Amino acid sequence: MEVLVPICLRSRDTQTKEEVETSFHRIVRMEAFQRFQKFNLNLVKLIKEGNLVGLPSQQQQGQWMVLIDAAKGCATEPPNLDVYPADFVVCSFYKIFGYPTGLGALIVKNEAASLLNKTYFSGGTVAASIADIDFVQKRKSIEQVLEDGTISFLSIASLQHGFKIIEMLTTSAIALHTSSLATYVRKKMLYMKHRNKKNVCIIYGQEASKVADLKTSPTITFNLKREDGTWFGYREVEKLASLSGIHLRTGCFCNPGACAKYLGLSHSDLVSNFEAGHVCWDDNDVIKGKPTGAVRISFGYISTYQDAEEFLKFLQSSFVSKPIASSNGHTLSMNTLNLVDNQSQQVVPDVRLKSIIIYPVKSCQGFSVQSWPLAAGGLKYDREWLLQGSGGEILTQKKVPELASIRTLINLELGKLFVESPKRKDKLQISLLENLTHLTAEVDVYGQRYEVESYDENVNTWFSEAIGRHCTFMRCSSSKKSLCTSTGQNGRLCRDTRSKLSFVNEGQLLLISEESVSDLNSRLSSSNGNGKQHVLVDAMRFRPNIVISGSTPYREDNWKRLHIGDAYFTSMGGCNRCQMINLHQNAGQVIKSKEPLATLASYRREKGKILFGVLLNYEDGSSGEETVAERWLQVGQEVHTSTE
Questions:
Q1: Which residues are catalytic?
Q2: Into how many domains does the chain fold?
Q3: Burial of 224 per CB tally in 10 Å (0-12, 13-18, 19+)
Q4: Cβ distance 122 to 149 under 8 Å?
Q5: Which Pfam family is one of those matched by this entry (predicted)?
Q6: 0.85 exceeded by the pTM?
Q7: For 473-526, how does the pLDDT look when each residue is reduced to its tens digit (9 = 90+)?
Q8: How far apart are alpha carbons 145 and 393 in whole angstroms?
Q9: At which of 140, 169, 198 does a domain end?
């Protein structure tokens, strides 16, 4: 929500025109976090008249110019420029009507137009120019000088429909409606408490200004806290909201000054965050215990009371801790992921290896085997190939759902990789042992550098036709992973492991327990009542490498080491799940839903991550250049585990 904010430029009589123009470019926007309230527009006249309380008289001399940021405020309280004679007003039609995107207006008082003197020009803004000498004559009117290139005339033509809606509803009714909704939601948020009576919602801007006579804005900017006082990151909030069909704006809202002020980030904090890798639009939402941004909700004329209630229910169910009653009526305090009781830990179940699945090409279909050899990078040939887009990006199912229809199979005896696609009649055959003589290069896959080898154009053309876009097929020849020198929580090795990685995101192998999947399905069944579509998943939805059976639900969370046959593995902790597990195929079509991620988020969330399954690294026992005997995994082998 953009509010009606007077922002001032003071021009002393002694300043030159150039100094005034330089000063004009230093105008700053009103801070986004302060949009809980709107300033009274009487400030415009006070500023224009130089009657500013608290400023020394020498600072009130000269001419003040006022810019009103009414980007969103025009929808509820458009400024009357006869009463409030501002020099500049900005508004956003997208924020007023919800359409079209990226179209706004700058309203300029004729007397102030001369200040807007651009140092550059482009198409449509000049009357004449000569290319090889410094000669240019600008057009006369201010709108002709400022409108570069072809204006968005189709979008402009649609504005009449938006104005009709505003005229029909009236701005006074919209203002009352949106302010009522925001006030209701704000009060409900402030009343939200964890089971230890600590506040859940921290709302910014409530006491941000000392200016009197402020009006309530239909916008709420906030962050959320856990019961232990730590912060929920804004990306976590945004991710969970999307699963509930709620779209939020998060981050710093293109206003780093306000972001730093209200979040308590010093200059050194901001520099340190950047050096740690934090940039705009990334997922680093909490660094060193401090949030790097916030969450913002806005109400418009189309918002309803039901929308407000749905949002409040989302906050209550996703972020407010509640006491858990035991069967004897006493209140228990349980951690979200502590799902294995002490009695079950005393029982040693007969855990067996149920399935082995290999995924030769990243994000394509895998294939099941009865037995398979291990290599330094985990299962041999697992995710050893990938597809790279024309822009250098790594192609995955999240970006290219067509990858889910590509089938793969490796025949070890023939030494070949077979690839099939419903869009290609011919089956692609690729030798596993062939020494590629094509271009060798380095690629970056999620921050990890790899040396890769590429294939000829025939192979690239096959995959390009299979997925409907140009791509390059690549094979991993080596990875340049740095060594791990620290241990993580619970004594586990950090994710930056010594082990060689192929094109996997984190650990070499993903383990899924059939019992954990069964528990998830029971929760899906209970939540799919009330006429909702019945959703059940199998272990393959999570793209595991090994599936085990005979355990208890989520017992794998506590394992630190595994022993299968004569192979040993180290647990790297839980696997953070994303929207990819919501994709599934039905009659050749890739279908996207909210499940099972939405249900997992309700009980498998820890510190911003939704965990299901565990990541493993293979301990090949090698050191230096010595050769280690090849080990195999076999379906039916017993799985020995250790929590030490």
A1: 254
A2: 3
A3: buried
A4: yes
A5: MOSC
A6: no
A7: 988 776 544 434 334 444 444 444 444 556 676 788 999 999 999 999 999 888
A8: 39
A9: 169
